[in-house]
């Protein structure tokens, strides 16, 4: 699935000269529901007097108007500082579909800071930021940051930070500008910034280049944002017997899974409960997925019927993790014609799956 900019946030805050306080709170961010969201914050900051070391006490996400440090802590992925400890390029992130604000708390005045906040949709929720990089350049106009991405269809998000009244924001070859600006003040508090993003079709070595108007010192930060596997259809099929009960295959044999593992349904092989079943259960293991999209649709498909000569029969089908039932479906007084069942797990049922390598089907036959 391609990563896209969400409607929740794509904005910048510029802190110019004068006192602006040590805390920044973004506008309210309202991510698209069930969008596999990632909130990304990029900061370019130049210390106000050219020598102060800037410490950010906390990056949090939560309710509007909260105190610094309250809310959910964001992950500070990169904090790139030049050799003189003057120019900072920082990237932080948080997985969330909740509504709230980003709160940045610094130990010094935020004069000269440029803070960008955006919501990305379609981001992998297990490993959203697999790689990062930071680089510093001294007295040069061409400032690159190199990063080797690990996954196809990722995004490279990068920003560059410097200062100086003799040059504007850099030209940016990385892709789409999230923001390109200057605080417009003079001296060391005049931060120049370019934050950007670009889709990377194939994993490998990548470079984001920022070309400045003159030779200056800079800091660069970059992250890879991994795309969710939505749209990739994965099938888990029967791959072993755990419990046979009184069930047998079409040849009255005791190997069950290979009679129900075909890609295209074939009624020449099947499994069958014992006669006059009473809580007759078989348990069949499922193959392990190579990749998991925990937020994507989970669909269960199976086919069933009873023998023509059978008395009334009930069938219960369960999806089980280990010994824990994730979902179950009851079919009472089943008929003699084949029924093709298709069940979709709810969000709550999907959330209860913690180990996709430990999933089973259970089939229970009962004669009431």
Describe this structure in words.
- There is one protein chain.
- This protein is mainly β and 368 residues long.
- The protein is built from 1 helix and 24 strands.
- Strands 10, 11, 12, 13, 14 and 15 form a 6-stranded antiparallel beta sheet that branches. The chain has a 5-stranded antiparallel beta sheet with strand order 1-9-3-7-6, with no helix packed on it. A 5-stranded antiparallel beta sheet has the order 16-19-24-21-22, with no helix packed on it.
Question: Which value, in Å, is the CA radius of gyration?
Answer: 28 Å
Q: Please bin the fraction of helical residues.
A: under 10%
Secondary-structure element sequence? EEEEEEEEEEEEEEEEEEEEEEEHE
Alpha-beta classification: mainly beta
Roughly what is the average pLDDT, rounded to an integer? 81
What brief labels describe this structure?
mainly beta; Jelly Rolls; six-stranded antiparallel sheet; 1 helix; five-stranded antiparallel sheet
Question: What is the gist of this entry?
Answer:
The relative contact order is 0.15. The chain has 368 residues and is mainly beta. It has one helix spanning 347-351, and strands spanning 4-14, 23-25, 38-46, 56-62, 72-73, 75-81, 87-95, 101-106, 113-121, 131-148, 154-163, 171-172, 176-182, 191-200, 205-225, 238-243, 248-249, 271-272, 280-286, 299-304, 314-321, 324-331, 339-344, 359-366.
Question: In terms of topology, how is this protein built?
Answer:
Blueprint lengths: L3 E11 L8 E3 L12 E9 L9 E7 L9 E2 L1 E7 L5 E9 L5 E6 L6 E9 L9 E18 L5 E10 L7 E2 L3 E7 L8 E10 L4 E21 L12 E6 L4 E2 L21 E2 L7 E7 L12 E6 L9 E8 L2 E8 L7 E6 L2 H5 L7 E8 L2
Antiparallel strand pairs: 1-9, 2-8, 3-7, 3-9, 4-5, 4-8, 6-7, 10-15, 11-14, 11-15, 12-15, 13-14, 16-19, 17-18, 19-24, 20-23, 21-22, 21-24
């Amino acid at each position: 699935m391609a990563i896209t900019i969400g409607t929740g946030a794509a904005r910048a805050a510029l802190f110019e000269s004068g006192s602006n306080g040590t805390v920044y709170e973004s506008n309210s961010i309202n991510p698209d529901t069930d969008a596999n969201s990632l909130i990304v914050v990029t900061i370019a900051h130049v210390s106000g007097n050219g020598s102060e070391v800037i410490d950010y006490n906390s990056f949090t996400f939560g309710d509007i108007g909260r105190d610094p440090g309250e809310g959910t802590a964001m992950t500070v992925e990169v904090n790139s500082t030049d050799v003189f400890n003057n120019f900072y390029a920082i990237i932080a992130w948080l997985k969330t579909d909740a509504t709230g604000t980003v709160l940045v708390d610094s130990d010094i005045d935020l004069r000269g800071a440029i803070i960008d906040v955006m919501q990305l949709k379609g981001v992998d929720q297990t490993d959203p930021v697999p790689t990062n990089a930071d680089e510093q350049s001294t007295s040069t106009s061409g400032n690159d940051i190199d990063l080797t991405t690990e996954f196809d269809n990722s995004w490279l998000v990068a920003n560059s930070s410097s200062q100086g009244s003799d040059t504007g924001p850099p030209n940016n070859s990385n892709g789409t500008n999230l923001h390109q600006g200057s605080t417009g003040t003079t001296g060391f508090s005049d931060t120049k910034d370019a934050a950007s993003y670009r889709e990377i079709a194939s994993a490998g070595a990548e470079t984001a280049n920022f070309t400045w108007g003159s030779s200056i010192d800079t800091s660069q930060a970059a992250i890879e944002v991994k795309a969710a596997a939505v749209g990739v259809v994965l099938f888990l099929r029967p791959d072993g017997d755990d419990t046979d009960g009184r069930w047998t295959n079409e040849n009255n044999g005791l190997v069950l899974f290979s009679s129900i593992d075909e890609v295209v349904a074939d009624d020449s092989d099947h499994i069958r409960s014992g006669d006059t079943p009473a809580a007759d259960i078989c348990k069949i293991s499922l193959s392990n997925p190579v990749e998991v999209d925990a937020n994507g649709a989970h669909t269960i498909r199976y086919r069933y019927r009873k023998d023509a000569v059978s008395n009334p029969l009930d069938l219960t089908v369960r999806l089980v993790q280990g010994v824990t039932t994730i979902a179950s479906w009851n079919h009472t007084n089943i008929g003699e014609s084949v029924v093709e069942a298709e069940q979709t797990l709810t969000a709550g049922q999907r959330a209860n799956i913690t180990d996709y390598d430990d999933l089973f089907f259970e089939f229970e036959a009962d004669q009431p």
